Amino acid sequence: MAAGVDRARITFGPDGDRVSGSELLDRGAAHFAPDADGDAVGVIMTNDRPTVELVLGAVGVGARIVSLPLPGRGADLDDYVAVLRGACRAHDLSTIVVADEHAALLEPLELPVRRHSHLDGAPVGRPSETGFTLVQFTSGSTARPRPVILDDRALGANVDAILSVVQPRHGDVMVSWLPLAHDMGLVGMLLTGVAAVGPAWAGGADLVLLDPRQFLRRPATWLEVVSHWRGSFTAAPDFAFRMAVARRPSVPVDLGCLRCVIVGGEIVRAETLREFEQAFVASGFDPIAFCPAYGMAELGLAATMTPPDVHWQQAVVDTDALADDLVRPAGKGATTALVASGPPLPGYDVRVGDEASDASASVRALSVQGPSLGIDGSSGARFGGTSGWYSPGDRGFLRDGWVHVCGRDDDYVVARGRNLYAPPIEAVVGAIEGVRSGRVTVVGQPDGTWVVVAEATKGSIEGHDRDHLRWEIRRAVVELAGAKPDDVVVLAPGSMPMTSSGKLQRGAVRAQLLREGHGNAEDGRR
Description:
There is one protein chain. The chain is an alpha/beta fold. It has three domains: about 5-150, 3-Layer(aba) Sandwich (Rossmann fold); about 220-410, Rossmann fold (3-Layer(aba) Sandwich); about 415-525, ANL, C-terminal domain (GMP Synthetase, Chain A, domain 3), CATH 3.30.300.30. It has helices at about 20-30, 50-60, 75-90, 150-165, 185-195, 210-215, 220-230, 240-245, 270-280, 320-325, 420-430, 465-480, 505-515; strands at about 10, 20, 40-45, 65-70, 95-100, 115, 135, 145-150, 170-175, 205-210, 235, 260-265, 290-295, 300-305, 315-320, 335-340, 350, 365-370, 375, 395-400, 400-410, 410-415, 420, 435-445, 450-455, 485-490. Helix 11 packs across helix 12 (about 465-480). The longest helix has 18 residues, at about 465-480. The two termini are about 40 Å apart.
């Protein structure tokens, strides 16, 4: 992956200086030495130059790094420290590297910590006899984050498969605000971006790396940077495109330069893609640039991807049938548009249930197979076991060889003996004035009751406004699903638990409901 890195240039921030990949790699390699203590180095991944130097240096010398995130919004800091402490024990970390501004978070660990400002001293780790190895964690959106061990061979296989679909060109410019602690940011943008400049591909390219906080504070920054740098390649989860529409740039932008826009990391909504297209068609955006994809940390990153030169596809199906695991054409009732995530990458395969062939009549558990399946850092076993088929907990169907992801097991809720498909309910609630889009979840409970949890926007829950908002949510749900939730919980702005990559933490929401006396929500899944 480091081949041709001298032809890569990375810019940190919207107006930062360009730095050559070779300079970053050389400085990063100097942080590793054969006589250093410890084989593995933990890195609190932040989108800055010291972190990128360490990652590229580890790739260059063949060291082992453990990617560690910052705590997500609303996270319990004791739980966060417990995760870090477990990572230290499991991977025998001798040092954790962290940006100076976040060093206080690591004080309870009682482990050597190196701040970015003190990196130019003794080496932080040594090269490994087995070559470059990355330990990354699952997102933690539905359960506690799980470590995934990926060696250079596995990462290289996934990166090569992605590049074979993206087909990078000389002079491509990649723009990313995605956290490097997330697989889309680290593998999808940084490592794939560096590999793309090799002689077999683009032969030279730029990566503009933004701080995720810049996007979250002002989403317009993302598209303004794409326009300014003539970005041809970017990637983000569905929620980011909704934020970009809601808080679009106040100055004209030119998005005609974009030819590959990967959408993944969570369910991709057809209405999100259409709204983004409508909002920015006058800015030159071509919807054929949308490349919905499907993947997981256990695989490195991607399992499927829509090619950049093919228009994204959708299947419009009956919502009630979907709740019963059936895929039927839209009728007179409620409908759901499911975006296809493209065909499997070269060398990869996806099946539905036990069907390796096309299975388009029913929704079943999805399983993936490919050369980049990693090792479960908790058990030491390879994901997929002896069969090579790994089931990540997602459900969907195949149509004409393209994968349609319907969601995770959590998206199917049993409510008083009736099956409910949560994503359309969450979408209609998220469209209500006063509710923050993308901050809604439906939670089932073991006694058959179910709860809708929504985060309010600022200024929408003062006094009687909270009761009115709960009434509006209940009414919208009844109109769509024909069933009334047993409770509606409206959370204050900024209090919905989120992962460090911006995903809603459903498991934490269930735990919160349990603490507040709403019942044992953990067992309400199908």
